[in-house]
Amino acid sequence: MRLTIVGSGYVGLVTGACLADLGNQVICVDNDTEKIDLLTKSDEIPIYEPGLEELVKKNKENGRLTFSSDIEFGIKDSDVIFICVGTPSRDDGSADLTGIEKVSRIIAEHIDSYKLVVEKSTVPVETSEWIKKTINTFKKNGCEFDVASNPEFLREGSAIEDFMNPDRIVIGVESKKAEELLKELYSPIETKIVVSDIKGAEIIKHASNSFLATKISFINAISNLCDRTGADINAVAEGIGLDSRINRHFLKAGVGFGGSCFPKDIKAFIHISEKLGYSFGLLKEVEKINQEQKDRVIRKIEELLWNLPEKTIAIWGLAFKPHTDDIRSAPSMDIIKSLLKEKAKIRVFDPEAMEKVRKEMGNRIVYCKDVYDAAQDADCVILVTEWNEFKEVDWDRVKSVMKHPAVLDGRNIYDSGKLKNLGFKYAGIGRR
Ligand code: UDX
């Protein structure tokens, strides 16, 4: 099929590269000409995602994947148009849909034959209605079109694997033609295809992310009880998660969830619910618990070190999770900002996210070359992101360079007994 992907960010670029790899002819368009230049003229890609650079290169070379800043050409040349533009949070928590509206108007202007317009960006329920209305209002001819919703569930760090081997594909449609086109497009992928109405598909996306975030806040809430009683949250989570009705995924207590999706999508879901007349109290509490997790980290460091001014704190891990350089809504940023407010000195290390943090934090913190460098003269190490390379460290070496051997294990990955035997003070999240 001939496809156009509008928006070459995370979702757009992964979708474009994967659909090209499945044998389609794909044009990825974006109004950021610098990005398109980079993608056209070099083998580099603007984001860090394992395997994506190679997949883009391969499909550029075989001629199935091209990039353009000319959206008009993309629209005229394709049967299916995927909208993958950003839907950032506005100040009131609602999703900013101006990008979606702009693309809808441009599609309306240039539509010259039947098109299937697929909304892949995460959007509040009923956005498809607006897309339809907009195209109908601004189109200059009688060309037919369908709108469909096909939410994306990929995770950063395993995006290609998630796209190619999904648990399910959700398509929200209101015509047989749209359903058949999307089923054909995804026929090379072996998985269950869930067909619903469009609003159902829109709700599925927000509800899935909100449910996962709820699991995380639930286990973080339970970790509070473990802190107060001395029970170990890792054992508690295992005991809960081995019940197959609950399952073990997303039951890891820690410093709170971050990233470009969960925090933003929960806000948008709360907002659209409110607009529809339903106050989503459960999700408000999920958000609140997530914020409290970061405050808990600061209280725990105070318990280890007493006063924070002039103390040196090493932060291991800055990305919102491993295998990405993404620091959007990363717990590390909130924790660093709170510590700076308390006049602590900060030394940081992350295998991938250092440049992005440097852009945001400038010279307010010290950037280090590895975990040992970060621990130099530190009064406490905080493990914020559980990169694999942080799992096996030489603790004797860490202790020898620290001023005072204390570890706050923000992801509960270390053997607390071993660390205590080596002379460290240890605190976990719901674990001693
Ligand atoms: C998420 C959804 O998983 C994905 O389906 C959707 O398309 C986009 O949002 P992503 O944001 O890439 O993906 O990361 P994910 O792996 O889900 O982790 C999100 C956050 O939750 C991270 O900050 C992670 O550290 C945290 N988390 C996850 C926990 O704190 N505990 C857990 O048990 C799992």
Can you walk me through this structure?
The chain is of the alpha/beta class and 432 residues long. It folds into 2 domains: 2-196, Rossmann fold; 211-428, 3-Layer(aba) Sandwich (Rossmann fold). It is 45% helix and 14% strand. It has 17 helices and 14 strands. It has helices spanning 10-21, 33-41, 52-61, 71-76, 98-110, 127-138, 159-164, 176-185, 198-229, 233-241, 262-275, 281-305, 331-341, 354-361, 371-375, 395-401, 416-421, and strands at residues 2-6, 25-29, 65-68, 80-83, 115-119, 145-149, 168-172, 192-196, 312-316, 345-349, 366-367, 380-383, 406-409, 425-428. The strands form 3 sheets. The protein has a 6-stranded parallel beta sheet with strand order 3-2-1-4-5-6, sandwiched between helices. Strands 11-10-9-12-13-14 form a 6-stranded parallel beta sheet. Strands 7-8 form a two-stranded parallel sheet. Helix 9 packs across helix 11 and helix 9 (198-229) runs parallel beside helix 12 (281-305). The mean pLDDT is 97. The structure holds uridine-5'-diphosphate-xylopyranose (UDX). Residues 152-156, 209, 212, 216, 250-252, 254, 257-259, 261-262, 320-321 line the site of uridine-5'-diphosphate-xylopyranose. Uridine-5'-diphosphate-xylopyranose binds at residues 152-156, 209, 212, 216, 250-252, 254, 257-259, 261-262, 320-321.
